[in-house]
Amino acid sequence: MIRKIYNWIKEKIVWLLIGGTVIASVGLVTNIPATVELPPNVQAVHALQENYFRQNGKYLQVLPGNRLPHDETGSVKGRLGQDIDAGYRIDVYEAPDGEQGYSITWKDDDGYHVDSFGSQKSDRDRFIPKIATSTSSVFSGWFASLFTQIAHGAVVQTHTADMDGSTEYFSITDGAQTGLDLTSDFTVEAWVNLDGTNENNVITKNTGAGNQRGYTISFIPTSSLMRIGMSVDGSAFVESDVTVTIGTGSWLHMAWVYDASAGTWEAYLDGASEGTGTGLPTSINDNTSEVAVGSSAGGGGGHLDGRLDDVRVWNDIRTTSEIDTNKDNCFLSTSEAGLVSWWLLNNDETDEHTNGNDLTNNNTVPFQTASLPYACGDPPSTEDYNNSQIW
């Protein structure tokens, strides 16, 4: 039996080259049988879209987290009459024959689904069955990656935030944020390209007034340090450093990984561990301070001087392999396990994660197009209505 299963899998595997990366591919992707009944959620979306089409002459694209594309205004509920269930995505396309259609993508206990409506829908209906993680971590990782590509497309980076090291920063109030009250294990990642060498805060939730101290993630090039600071009670503040070499004028991927149970953290540069810091508390004060990106709370200091890009916050301990493999991965899911916020800073302050922690741009941080940290390739757009590329 094991040999039969092995041979079946072996016969189904082909290799494709996507964006310069070889991944196991679509032998396991099959057309959904016509007899499969669509789930009620999809049927409901179909009815809403058909009504919207009759009124507007086009279908409405809906991104994860009930968000509209950047070129649409209003809300999903305001446009369709109700929100779309979390985890569903709708992509609108124009087929080669000129007719418009749309695809609904979602996952359930059985696997990953793409159902299409409109012209040539059979070309786009797909089902990818799940394989148990215990069978092969490679397969489970591949399915997650492939679903992400289907559901979200690759992110094509065109801009980065260019911060002045003086007054500019991003923020979100405590009441508006979800998941950024980090009180235990976490990982923070960011791409930076520095102009100055003073202390640079990447993200903080820390205000001295009223004992609202929490955490600060920073680095100090002039002292060759990466630093985590945190408070267990909102009053006392403990800092721990790791010695690193940080230059200016070139892109560098940085990661701070905090292990609460041990009171330690690990520093990473470009996917490689640079050492471990000790002496931190084993928990972090949950406070009402705003979250600041590129500065201390309220813009009080530690302004980042240079380019900042692709900031990710996780509520778990990322492994060396996960950090190194995914530091320039454009195919993250917007509901990735453990991911709390994902700010690409790709000409806006939007949180790509379904938590929707969109930032406020304080003192007009500009975005620039030159010198991007990494290339994501040029996959089919997920922002355009008339998207014939995906055919």
Structural notes for this entry:
The protein is an alpha+beta fold and 391 residues long. The chain has 2 domains: 2-154 and 382-390, no CATH class; 160-368, Sandwich (Jelly Rolls). The protein is built from 5 helices and 21 strands. The longest helix has 17 residues, at 40-56. The radius of gyration is 23 Å and the shape is elongated.
Give a quick precis of the structure:
This protein has 391 residues and is of the alpha+beta class. Helix content is 14%, strand content 31%. It is elongated.
Largest sheet: 8 strands, antiparallel
CATH C-level category of the largest domain: Mainly Beta
CATH topology of the largest domain: Jelly Rolls
Report the CATH architecture of the largest domain: Sandwich
What is the global morphology? elongated
Poorly predicted runs of 5 or more residues: 1-35, 131-155, 377-391
Figure out the total of helices: 5
Strand percent estimate: 25-35%
Could you give the distance between the termini? 38 Å
Number of strands: 21
CA radius of gyration is 23 Å
Number of domains: 2
SSE series: HEEHHEEEEHEEEEEEEEEEEEHEEE
Helix content: 10-25%
Q: How confident overall, as mean pLDDT? A: 78
Alpha-beta classification: alpha+beta
